[in-house]
Amino acid sequence: MNPSESLESVPLTAEDMDREVPATYPTEAFISRDYLEAEKRLLWPKVWQMVERESDLPDPGDWLTYNVADESIVVLRKEDGSLRAFHNVCPHRGRQLVAVPDHLPGKVHSVRGSRRKGFVCAFHGWTFDADGANTYILDPQDWHGSLKPERTCLSEVRVDTWGGWIYVTMDPEAVPLKEWMGRAGEILDHFELDRMRYKWRQWAIYDCSWKTGIETFLETYHVAGTHTQLLAFGDYYSLSKQYGLHSVSSYDTRDEKFRMSESAGTTRAGKGEDARVSTYELIRENYETINYAASTETLVRAAGRLVDELPEGATPAECIAHWIASAKADDAARGVVWPEVPPEIKPESGLAWGLFPNQNILHGETFALCYRVRPYGDDPDRCLFEAYALERFPEGEEPATEWVYAEPTQENWGPVLAQDFANMAFVQKGLKSSGFRGPLPNPHQEQKVINLHRNLARFMGRGAPVKAEG
User: Fold this and answer.
1) 256-259 contacts: CB < 8 A, separation 24 or more?
2) What is the structure's pLDDT at 7?
3) For the chain, what is the radius of gyration of the CA atoms?
4) Strand partners, 23
5) What is the rounded (10 degree) CA torsion for 176, 177, 181, 183?
6) CA distance linking residue 371 with residue 387, whole number of Å
7) Are 211 and 356 contained in the same domain?
């Protein structure tokens, strides 16, 4: 038995991950066209997946399409405010009810509209109401009474909401969305993500697998090698932990003087002799270089006042406490009320959550920076990459936004995301090298990446991470 065969007999368990056992896994998921084809049967039809925000369908009759792999789904807001979702296909001859061109750079992200009462197939005029029931067939007598309602109605897709997002699953046997979200959903519910609105949203088509794309944003271990300019302002040591289907990363610390409950989340002290100054420099640098996301102007301005409002020698913990209290008061004065996240939840809530299979949410009380990556056609070397910022705004002051196609450049995305893009295509190329012996992710800091593949293997039936030790 060769070494790889012996490793295959020791698949990684959740307990192994909690013990941070080193692991490896095959590269097939990234580079194989056959694997991507199998995802169409084994993965995408079986999972709950995010479509859009509920705010994208605010009024009765609003609708939009969602495409993944070969599947196209239409989601509709009904007159009573409920949501319905259907496969975007006429049961007669298979024409799409809503014509959805392939995703095209700068042209088509999705198709959407308003005031829809039902659907009419453009091929032969078969007609359906908002519940998917067939209401018109030309010359039904020609079928000699054999047409049955269950064969002529639209194929329904389960739809639910969580955190302000619309989710669908094509699997009638899937667990309810709340159960799917599990502990991750329970923790993030404290942040009232449903009360946030878009600040901006952009998308691109990029030259890497969707797995390579989402993995880039599942860990901060790469900061020291990729975002070197950030090291002057903060220590980016991190930890990560599996929560079944999902996983979380948190800031860890090598220096005990910076250890505090807030160190696990997005609000933390910078490094430097004067914590008042370094905390401001850290938050400002993150905000300005991550496309004005991952924080808010309120938080940046409150941090900028620390040097005036606190005495020299203030500890990192004192700076954090004062900063957060000031920003919370500033927001309240302009009509933005923070959620009350219990103190015992904050350490567990961490920095960012990887939601299986293809979402990542970096969150705070008043903002979230979110990523989603989908396959692009049948090409394992390309993906549809989406990023968007959410924020709490005073009632009625949220900006009007739409999806903007943006080439992956620093001008469009900011320095930090551009640095990430600079890696992704070359990771994809390197995974094909005959000299690559397989991934060796950091079991402490990159556990979210390992957990992605552990869960992919549950659906795909292959590619499970195994112990990388002898």
Assistant:
1) 257/315, 257/316, 258/316
2) 42
3) 24
4) 467
5) -50
6) 5
7) yes
**33 and 57 share one domain:** no
The span from the CA of 337 to the CA of 164, in Å, is 17
What's the average pLDDT block by block, 10 residues per block, for the chain (470 residues)? 44 92 96 98 98 97 96 97 98 95 77 95 97 97 95 98 98 98 98 98 96 94 82 78 95 62 54 85 90 94 96 90 96 97 92 97 96 95 96 96 94 92 95 96 95 97 87
Tokens 């194929």 belong to residue: 155
Q: Which residues pair with 409 in a beta bridge?
A: none
Among the listed residues 207, 227, 268, 228, the one whose alpha carbon sits nearest the alpha carbon of residue 426: 207
Say whether both 114 and 187 belong to one domain.
no
Which residue from 211, 266, 237, 265 is spatially nearest to 442, judged by alpha carbons?
237
pTM score > 0.70 for this model? yes
For residues 191 and 48, what is the distance between their CA atoms, to the nearest angstrom? 21
**Can you give the residue range of the structural domain that contains 354?**
1-44+182-266+338-470
> Cα–chain-centroid distance for residue 444?
21
Phi, psi angle pair for 316, to nearest 5°: -55, -40
| Cβ contacts of 17 within 8 Å, gap of 6 or more | 23, 242, 443, 447, 450, 451, 454
CB of 47 closer than 8 Å to CB of 169: yes
Look at residue 161 and give its three-state secondary structure.
strand
Instruction: Say if residues 136 and 125 touch (Cβ distance below 8 Å).
Output: yes
The full DSSP string for 337-392 is: PPP---TTTHHHH-SEEEETTTEEEEE-SSEEEEEEEEEETTEEEEEEEEEEEEE-
